[in-house]
Amino acid sequence: MKIVAAKKILKVNDQLAAENRKQFDAANLRVVNVVGSPGAGKTTLLEALFARLKDRLRPAVIEGDIAGSIDSERMERIGVPVVQINTDGACHLDANMVANAAKELDLNAIDLLAIENIGNLVCTAGFDLGEHLRIVVLSTAEGDDKAVKYPAIFQGSDALVITKIDLAPHLNFQAERITADMKRLAPDAPVFQVSATCGDGVAELADWLVQTLATAKRS
Amino acid sequence: MHELSIVEALIDQVDRELDQAGQTGPVRRLELSIGRLSGVHPDSVRFAFELLTQNTPMRNTEIVIEEPKAVCRCRACGAQTEIDELVVQCPRCAGADIVIEGGRELLLQTIEIEEPTP
Lengths: 219, 118
Description:
The structure holds 2 protein chains of 2 kinds. By secondary structure, chain A is α/β, with parallel strands linked by helices. Chain A is built from 9 helices and 8 strands. Chain A has helices at residues 11-26, 42-53, 70-77, 95-102, 146-149, 151-155, 168-171, 175-185, 202-215, and strands at 2-8, 30-36, 59-65, 82-86, 112-116, 133-139, 159-163, 191-193. Chain A has a 7-stranded parallel beta sheet with strand order 4-3-5-2-6-7-8, with helices on both faces. Chain A starts with a strand and ends with a helix. Chain B is of the alpha+beta class. Chain B is built from 2 helices and 6 strands; from the N terminus they run αβαβββββ. A 3-stranded mixed beta sheet of chain B has the order 2-1-6, with helices on one face. In chain B, strands 4-3-5 form a 3-stranded antiparallel beta sheet, with no helix packed on it. In chain B, helix 1 (3-20) crosses helix 2. Chain B is elongated, with a radius of gyration of 18 Å. The chains are: A alpha/beta, B alpha+beta. Chain A binds chain B through residues 1-13, 90-92, 94, 122-123, 125-127, 148, 151-152, 155, 181, 183-185, and chain B through 1-2, 4-6, 9-10, 12-14, 17-18, 21, 23, 32, 37-40, 86, 88-89, 96, 98, 106-113, 115.
């Protein structure tokens, strides 16, 4: 006999993500999922953003890594509440991991939760975590052709942040090229050019983040 | 590599569907739809399934995978082109004003179980 299921294989993840989002909304907490390759500068970008935003809101971070706690130690050093997830080999975070990590945080005592996903431009694209916004971080050193080569992650993101822009002159990186590709893949997503270590572009990104998170309803 | 966690979710889902239908298996065949743009590789799904069902009642299940294509609709020239991978411009006129539909399915369609012997 045949059972007709016709159900999404990741239905459980999607349901958990919806529950996460509901819980975040109830706590009036805004959540951003930060994706990008290993070494793109996700942690450094968050450090720079938090330094700029800490007078305006109360941030916290969920750090996703395959192993180790180097990133969460960096967050502790700047006084941001942090929960480390170690996936023991898994190449992406899922909604269940985020739900468990969120239990470790006082959601009512924070306004902005950044989820730093596993460094990966492929697998992270498929899993809704319950965030309100997803931003993809790409460093100039990775090359300006990545939106074409890894379209899914770019297409599903609400903004592209190009990091290490101060290195662009040494790298034959053309910001116009990837900006044009991003416009085609995600017409409404803005592109920011940032150097977190020099401070370039951080203010613009921080302002956009605050404004957009106030209204964003990812589903 | 994330096919592994997708297949874990699939196996859980099959278990739940069997429960709901009051069936205990054994499962003979599963039909899946994995869209060309889903980022999920059918071969890896088969491999992960084999790996995860070793020594379980599902180990001999046949996996049938349909791979729906996506359609690129061009708002400039009106072309509707079937595509296998994500494009950023219309394959016919190279226009950028395109809408991509379908191809992202990741579905468990049917579960076929062996008839209980009377």
